[in-house]
Design goal:
With 284 residues, the protein is mainly alpha-helical. It is built from 14 helices and two strands. The protein has helices at residues 2-9, 12-30, 35-55, 57-63, 65-90, 97-114, 137-158, 164-187, 189-195, 200-204, 206-229, 235-257, 265-269, 271-280, and strands at residues 118-122, 125-129. Strands 1-2 form a two-stranded antiparallel ribbon. Helix 7 runs antiparallel to helix 8 and helix 11 (206-229) runs antiparallel to helix 12.
Length: 284
Amino acid sequence: MKLLSFLIKTHLHLSLAHALLIHCVMVVLLGQYNWALTLFLFGITGFVYSLNSLKDQSEDQINVPQRQNLFNKFGRLILSFYTITALFALLFLVADIQFLIAVAAIFVIGIIYSFPLFPWIQNGKLRLFRLKEIIIAKNFVTSISVAYYVFLLPFTYFRQVPDVSVWMIVLTFMIITTVSTIICDIRDISGDREAGIRTIATELGRKKSLNLCYGLISIPIFISLVFTSLDMISVNGFWIIFVISATQLSVLIYDHFFRFRREFQGFASEIFAYVTALSLFLYV
């Protein structure tokens, strides 16, 4: 239990999950592999989430006090570890300008997500906000970014074009990641409200936010059924989408009725990432 708690507090569980996913995408969907790309995703994931933890001290002290206590002591060291890892991996990634732009965009999004650098109008006045402070933007920017650099960054690097099945898996992962961010917002309602952060959960409340999650999860299953019936995606592609959606639905239902222990909530929200990686091996 202590090891699992440590993995969650330092965001190693997320970094390892995303590294495993991009590994599977390269091996299964592309038939090519580059270890530096896997290491880069490990580092950049940890960088983005650790940077956010360093900047979220007020709300995280309420929502996840144990993790925040760790980051108060070792946050800069943890951030440095992930940053050096990502930059080291980049040294071995010889690529074209399109790939470098995509990598730069990941760093920029991670920074404006946590720092007030994004211009936005509120109450008729132009102010600078963190992306996470803009309602809905937080959820969709996170889901689109994660779906891109986990699934599409390898296609950019190897200069290949995804087929319809891959795009459906990307859409599914994006929607399920959005659900995961809403679940986290539901758990963090008290801290976010006290810090003045507007999220879908603080605006809609717990019950309506949960109903929204159930509705979102049904979308990829419905679309994939239609596409499968039209022979636009394979049966294997459909089952991957179904397994990913069903896994997140199980997490949502369990959390809805039983509530995960606070220290394991982050891990529960990312279970589907590991299931996605496992199910990709059934793709071919």
